[in-house]
Amino acid sequence: MFEPARPLRFRPGQYLELSLPHATADARGTRRIFSLTTAPGDSGTVAVGLRAAEPTSSFKTALLKLKPGAVVSATSVAGDFLLPRNRSVPLLLIASGVGITPFMSQLRALAAGSGGTVTRDVVLIYAAASVDELAYAAELHGLGIRVLVCTPDDPQISGWTHLGPGLPDADALAAAVPDAAQRAAYVSGSPAAVAAARTAVRGAGGRSVRTDAFLGY
User: Fold this and answer.
1) Same domain membership, residue 190 and residue 98
2) Structural domains counted in the chain
3) Would you say residue 86 lies in a domain?
4) pLDDT tens per residue, range 81-116
5) For residue 153, how far is the Cα from the chain centroid?
6) Which residue of 34, 54, 59, 81 pairs with 48 in a disulfide if CB–CB is 3.0 to 4.6 A?
């Protein structure tokens, strides 16, 4: 979480490029792109989410070692992973692992001014390698949206539906979300997860699929 030196203008679903020069930089360099997780209206702070799995890059190592008060540079804000402006359009959000991060900004923005809950028609399918890796689970539960969770074990969160491990294929998706074809679909995660989820959505009749593939994470 950062306190910007001046207001940061962005739309929910966009990303921030951070520059962090460090002496032990590996071949991947000193800049990295992260999805913003805060809503544009959040007061005085901006945040990003990342997965700190081992082995990690020199950039993430340097980032995680920063002390409060340290200064980093944001070199750009961009991205077109944006929700339809028409709030009557129902949504199907499919996140795999760290792919949940852009959706947090979008869902937080949708909940702003609505008493902390999302009033828009949203179905979230959230896949993770384990229950422990379900980031933001408590906050997601409080938003009041429909969540279908894909983990090896059932997290037993009230109101959530457990689909088992791995993202659903077309048949499983159509059974779990019968109106998937009428929803604007958004898919975020690793390239392999994005490709599988996009195939499932199209197999279930969906035609509008916007994707956000996380490379090198």
Assistant:
1) yes
2) 2
3) no
4) 999 999 999 999 999 999 999 999 999 999 997 888
5) 21
6) 34
